[in-house]
Amino acid sequence: MKRMIAFISALVVFLGVAFFMTGNGKQTANTKKVPTVGILQLQTHPALDAIHRGVVAGLKEYGYVPGKTVKIDYQNAQGDQSNLKTMSQKFVNEDADEVVGIATPAAQALVSAAGKSTPVILAGITDPSGSGLIKSDSHPGANVTGTSGESPLKSHLDLMRELVPNTKTVGIIYTTSDHGGEYNAKKFAKICKQEGVAYKMFTIANTNDMQTVAEKMASEVDAVYAPQDNGVASAMKTLVSVTNKAKVPVIPAVDTMVKAGGLATLSVDQYQLGKLSGEMAAKVLKGKDTSDYAIKVISKGKMTLNLSEAKKLGITFPASVLKEAKTKGVVYQ
Which of 50, 141, 284, 288 could join 135 via S-S bond, C-beta 3.0 to 4.6 A? Predict the structure, then answer.
C-alpha cells in the first residue's frame, strides 16, 4: 500500500512537471530573451544627437522597439574621457548583447572594453581604419562594423569659392584630440594645396581655447573651414561670434553647424547615418557576422544654407544654390 501511495505521489509530481513544461514551459520556450543594446555617445551636440535618434529608429524599423523588444542602455560621457572608459566597461560587465559608439572616442573606448566578444557597431565614425577600429572597410574583422560619414571635402571648397570668391587664404581649424577632425582638416588642406588655395591651420585642445584661437584666425584669413569635428561643433557659436565681427564667413562640414551660425554646407545627413547604423545593429542582433560585414559609407551631401548669417555678412546666395537648398536640402531663416 505504501508503495502504491508513493507511486501515485510520484506520478502526480511527474504529471505536474509535464503540464508545466507543455503549458507554462511552452510559453517560456516561445518567449525570446529581450536583447540589450548599449549606446555610448561622446557628448551632447546636435549632430551626435541626430545620430543617436537615427540609431534608435533603425533598430525599430527591424522590429527592435525600445522598452518592448529591445532594452536600450543609453550613456552620454559629456566629453569626459574617464566617463567613456567607465561606461564602456559597464556595458561589458552587464553583458550587453551589442554596443553602439557615437563619435570616434566613444567607439575606441567600446572596442577596448569589448575585446573580441561583444559586437561593436560604429555610428558615423570618420576614418575607422585610421582610428585603429577595424582592419579595412570591406573586411572589418573581429567583432566591429558600422557606418562612416565621409565629408564631401572637395565640394566644400568649391562651395566656399562660389560663395566667397575673393577668398585668398582659408583658415582650417580642428581639435587636436579628435582623430576625425584632424583627418578631415588635413585632407581638406591637401585639397586646398592641389587647387592652389592658400591656407593656415589652427588647432584647439578643447572648447575653452576657441575664443582666443578664433580671434587670431579671423585676423589672418578670408574664410574659415570647420570640419566634422566634435570639439569645433560644440564651440561653433563661440567661433561664429568672433568671425562675424570680422566679417569672415565660416563654411562648416555639417548641417547642424550651419544652424549654429555657419554660412552654408553640403552635408551628410547625420540622422540617416545613424539610422543606417541602427539597421546594421539590428541585423547583427539577428545573427549577421560582423567580421565580414563591410563598413557602409555615406558621402553624398545635401545643400544647407543660413539666410540670416548671409545677411549679417552681406553675402547673396547664387540662384542655383538657393534653388538646390529649397528643393533638395535645408534653408535656415
Answer: 141
Which of 200, 135, 142 has its CA nearest to residue 174?
200
Measure the CA–CA gap between 29 and 17, rounded to whole angstroms: 15
Q: Using DSSP, state whether 72 is helix, strand or coil.
A: strand
* Cα 114 from Cα 224, distance rounded (Å): 39
Q: How far apart are CA 159 and CA 321, in angstroms?
A: 9
H helices of the chain, in order, are 2-22, 24-30, 46-61, 81-93, 104-114, 153-163, 179-194, 210-218, 230-234, 236-245, 255-259, 270-285, 307-313, 319-328
In a domain, 22, yes or no: no
Q: What CATH code is carried by the domain that includes residue 71?
A: 3.40.50.2300
As beta bridge partners, residue 66 has 70
Distance of alpha carbon 65 from alpha carbon 72, whole angstroms: 9
Co-location of 138 and 206 in the same domain: no
Residues 111 and 52 in one domain: yes
Q: What are 102's three cell numbers? A: 557615437
Sign of CA dihedral 235, 313, 188, 271: positive
Say yes or no: 174 and 216 in one domain: yes
Question: Looking at the structure, do residues 196 and 326 belong to the same domain, yes or no?
Answer: yes
pLDDT in tens, 9-61: 554 444 444 444 444 444 444 456 899 999 999 999 888 999 999 999 999 99
Residue 2 lies in a domain: no
Q: Is residue 225 part of a domain?
A: yes
- Residue among 107, 118, 79, 121 nearest 281 (CA): 121
Let me know: does 71 contact 8? Beta carbons within 8 Å. Answer: no
Task: Label each residue of 129-158 as H, E or C.
Answer: CCCCCCCCCCCCCCCEEEEEECCCHHHHHH
pLDDT by residue (tens digit) across 289-309?
A: 998 899 998 878 899 999 999
| pLDDT tens, residue by residue, 206-234 | 999 999 999 999 999 999 999 999 999 99
